[in-house]
């Protein structure tokens, strides 16, 4: 991402750097210990980022649809997979009003049936020609799009509402369908992709 953003990662195993008591209360709303852990570690990574950016490490709340509620002055997005949780963060006023982040292990096994729910036939053909990494990258790209758009527009998009028209090792471009009854969203967005160790990352800023 640009120099206005920073990413903070923490392993799901091991000690968490910082947990706020209010976040512990929110975590109890999840049924499984695994989901509670993911929730708390992601917010622990966020707290590190918030402090690093010069803000007080206030709790990251949870909105009615599960979306993170950020302290004033913070623009950010959370993500996690089986091993890590992370936060992409920027200062409000940096030129960004919303961020979306997602990442996945490159070696994760995903069935073809799952991909059929994520991609149109044209998308699947395009990505399969690039290799398995592109199928995982495309999933991350769509997740990053949804995470970025929902807090800004309150618009829920299905996977097929974001059609990838370009993807390489550094960039993705997607055309978006206008959700019914939602504020007008961008017709097209461009985000970034990168590899870090054994994971593929996708990020979008608006």
From TrEMBL:
Residues given in the record as Mg(2+) binding sites: 102, 104
GO molecular function annotations of the record: holo-[acyl-carrier-protein] synthase activity; magnesium ion binding
Domain 4'-phosphopantetheinyl transferase N-terminal: 33-90
Oligomer status and interactors: EntB, EntD, EntE, and EntF form a multienzyme complex called enterobactin synthase.
Keywords assigned by UniProt, alphabetized: Enterobactin biosynthesis, Magnesium, Metal-binding, Transferase
UniProt function note: Involved in the biosynthesis of the siderophore enterobactin (enterochelin), which is a macrocyclic trimeric lactone of N-(2,3-dihydroxybenzoyl)-serine. The serine trilactone serves as a scaffolding for the three catechol functionalities that provide hexadentate coordination for the tightly ligated iron(2+) atoms.
Domain named 4'-phosphopantetheinyl transferase: residues: 99-175
GO cellular component, one term: plasma membrane
Species the sequence originates in: Candidatus Lambdaproteobacteria bacterium RIFOXYD2_FULL_56_26
InterPro entries from the UniProt entry: 4-PPantetheinyl_Trfase_dom, 4-PPantetheinyl_Trfase_dom_sf, 4PPT_N, Enbac_synth_compD-like
Keyword Metal-binding: yes
Record family assignment: Belongs to the P-Pant transferase superfamily. EntD family.
Binding residue positions for CoA: 35, 43, 102, 143, 147, 157
Cofactor(s) it depends on: Mg(2+)
Keyword Ion transport: no
Reaction catalysis annotation: apo-[aryl-carrier protein] + CoA = holo-[aryl-carrier protein] + adenosine 3',5'-bisphosphate + H(+); apo-[peptidyl-carrier protein] + CoA = holo-[peptidyl-carrier protein] + adenosine 3',5'-bisphosphate + H(+)
Name of protein: Enterobactin synthase component D
Associated pathway: Siderophore biosynthesis; enterobactin biosynthesis
A single GO BP: enterobactin biosynthetic process
């Amino acid at each position: 991402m640009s120099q206005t953003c920073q990413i903070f990662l923490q392993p799901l195993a091991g000690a968490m750097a910082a947990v706020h008591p209010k976040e512990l209360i929110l975590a109890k709303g999840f049924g499984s210990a695994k989901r509670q852990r993911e929730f708390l570690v992601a917010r622990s990574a966020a707290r590190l980022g918030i402090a690093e950016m010069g803000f007080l490490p206030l709790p990251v709340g949870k909105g009615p649809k599960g979306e993170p509620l950020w302290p004033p002055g913070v623009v950010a997005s959370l993500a996690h997979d089986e091993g890590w949780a992370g936060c992409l963060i920027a200062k409000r006023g940096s030129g960004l009003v919303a961020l979306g982040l997602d990442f996945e292990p490159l070696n994760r096994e995903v069935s073809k049936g799952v991909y059929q729910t994520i991609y149109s036939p044209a998308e699947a053909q395009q990505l399969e020609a690039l290799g398995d990494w592109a199928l995982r990258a495309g999933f991350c790209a769509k997740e990053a799009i949804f995470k970025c758009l929902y807090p800004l527009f309150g618009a829920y998009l299905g996977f097929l509402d974001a059609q990838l028209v370009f993807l390489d090792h550094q960039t993705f471009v997607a055309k978006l369908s206008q959700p019914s009854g939602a504020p007008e969203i961008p017709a097209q967005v461009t985000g970034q992709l990168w590899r870090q160790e054994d994971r593929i990352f996708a990020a979008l800023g608006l």
